[in-house]
Amino acid sequence: MKKGRAMVLAVDIGSTVIFGGVLKEGKLLADFRKSTAAALTEDELGLFFLSWLTANGKSREDVDAAVFCSVVPELNAVMNGCIRKYFGIEALSLKAGVKSGLKLRYSNPRELGADLIANAVAASKLYPDENLIIVDFGTATSLCAVSSAGEYLGGTLIPGLSVAMEALSARTAGLPVVEIQPVDKVCARDVSGGIQSGLYYGTLGMLKELTGRMEDECFSSEGCRIISTGMYADLYSGFGLFDKNVPELVLLGLEQIHLYNLN
Question: Is 31 a catalytic residue?
Answer without folding.
Answer: no
